TrEMBL record:
InterPro entries (UniProt xref): F-box-like_dom_sf, F-box_dom, LRR_dom_sf
Top-rank lineage group of the source organism: Eukaryota
Residues of the signal peptide: none
Record protein name field: F-box domain-containing protein
Residue ranges annotated for the F-box domain, each copy included: 3-47
Length: 173
């Protein structure tokens, strides 16, 4: 049996980068394929998906969890993921806000926690990602924790701060 070099598999799987369902199925074939496919799947994850938000929450450290204590949020208590998925992310956009809101609604938590949850997630992604190049965030979530991690991150090439969205203003009251 002839095996292909990993570079060939990468090119093949990279052509399926928008076909998440089949790419995920291929990741289950064997460890070699999984190691190649996971970075492709997580380059640009669907940030609106609450399952992605749950995985992100498992990666928060004590400093990132501390601002969330007053909200009495019950975080997932699953084991840490096998991969550090956030390491593969290349860009973050405003859809993270939608994912956080979806997760809060699904879990039955108050919406006024959204900026703090989003801020902690951004700080964690900045801390863990070695491939993050582009960051688009709402200005309301910029705090010391985010700026400290942004200062430490050497991979970000582009940052855009957006104006406060109306739904943030109304839900923070």
């Amino acid at each position: 049996m002839i095996t292909l070099p990993n570079e060939c598999y990468y090119e093949i799987f990279n052509n399926l980068c928008h076909d998440y369902k089949n790419l995920f199925s291929c990741a289950l074939v064997n460890r070699q394929w999984c190691r190649i496919i996971i970075p492709i799947l997580w380059r640009k994850p669907n940030l609106k998906d609450i399952r992605v938000i749950r995985i992100f929450l498992l990666t928060l450290n004590e400093n990132e969890l501390a601002p969330l204590i007053p909200f009495k949020i019950n975080f997932p208590n699953h084991p840490k993921p096998l991969f550090e998925y956030t390491n593969y992310i290349t860009s973050i956009n405003n859809s993270l806000h939608d994912g956080v809101m979806n997760w809060l609604v699904y879990e039955g938590f108050k919406m006024h926690a959204a900026p703090d949850v989003e801020s902690s997630l951004i700080a964690m992604i900045l801390r863990t990602s070695e491939n993050l190049k582009s960051l688009i965030i709402n200005e309301i979530i910029c705090n010391q924790l985010v700026f400290e991690n942004l200062y430490e991150n050497t991979t970000v090439l582009s940052i855009s701060l957006c104006k406060i969205r109306d739904d943030y203003k109304s839900k923070r009251k």
